[in-house]
Design a protein that fits this description.
The strands form 3 sheets. Strands 7-6-5-8-9 form a 5-stranded parallel sheet. The protein is of the alpha/beta class and about 350 residues long. It contains 11 helices and 12 strands. The chain has 3 domains: about 140 residues, Rossmann fold (3-Layer(aba) Sandwich); about 150 residues, Aspartate/ornithine carbamoyltransferase (Rossmann fold, 3-Layer(aba) Sandwich); about 35 residues, no CATH class. Helices cover about 35% and strands about 15% of the residues. Helix 1 packs across helix 11, helix 2 packs across helix 11 and helix 5 crosses helix 6. The chain starts with 11 loop residues before the first helix and ends in a 7-residue tail after the last strand. The structure holds N-carbamoyl-L-aspartate.
Length: about 350
Amino acid sequence: MRSVISILDLSAEEINQLIATAKDIIAHPENYWDKCAHKKLATLFYEPSTRTRLSFEAAMLELGGSVLGFSEASSSSASKGESVADTSKILSCYADIIAMRHPQEGAPYVASRNATIPVINAGDGSHNHPTQTLADMLTISRELGRLENLTIGLCGDLKYGRTVHSLIEAMSRCGNIRFVLIAPKELKIPSFIRYNVLEKYHIPYTEVESLEEAMPQLDVLYMTRIQRERFDDPWEYERLKDTYILDTKKMELAKERMCVLHPLPRVNEISVQVDADPRAAYFRQALNGKYMRMALILKLLEEAKANPIREEIDTTDLEYDRVCTNPKCISRTEQELPQLFRCTDKAADIHRCIYCEQRA
Ligand code: NCD
């Protein structure tokens, strides 16, 4: 039995298979109508969501299964102080698979270590969002016909935007990818992506502040919302919130064959007028999310049936004698959770928390 907490829990080959399954679902939906009959998906959402939660639910319903869960922490026993570990043990009694969103980084990982059913990370704090990446990749594949030989611009809040982190991890494994990171200096990508992915695998990338300057080179432009809820200082958000606005004038600078993606929700970073441009793919991307979540639920339930035992964690290079300093890490609040760090760079003596990946 396997959970998907990071996009790297799936191999590049497995992602290609999920994309193939999603395309087959699109072509022959009737073949999938009862694939998950009598199976239940639990959606445990401790943070707001429209697309992710409802597309998970629609995905399970279209597979003939049913759904249960909660859409805010205040309506669950979390409000009484129940731990993530206990909640996931309980849900393992009632459902066959869990999709969890949580404001604390590493919470779905803790759930996966305690549940006896597969857990899917539906977004944890500013850390990861693997199923959004699956939606993004199906969209790029359908819009441009390839996942290789691409210049991908990522624009906006690259620091707190979890969708950006998972997308960089996944696309870095595809052939001949170049990233253009478009962000103000306060919102640049975090070190776990810069050093563990881009530098480590020698992925070409440039960092710029001007969207106009980047525009003509891009095959994909991935716009993001400035993540207001993650800022410690509300004035910093006010100062940065209007940094990038994609409008029809900027679209004139783009290639004729390119696509604009956005995980949504949009605030004001894409002018509504851009929606009519055939290159604007973000509403199609939201639909693709449902198909990829169908493919993923199917895969994980099949695997759990074939092998109901939870995979053990790799304990090589684990260290126990450090304390995570990230205030948003699940290890700060979860009862009696052991502090665990992994050495990610022996030469530089760098250790990262296994829950949130922040440096010790
Ligand atoms: C994203 C998220 O929750 O991280 N939304 C989504 O899942 N489609 C992006 C965002 O909230 O800005």
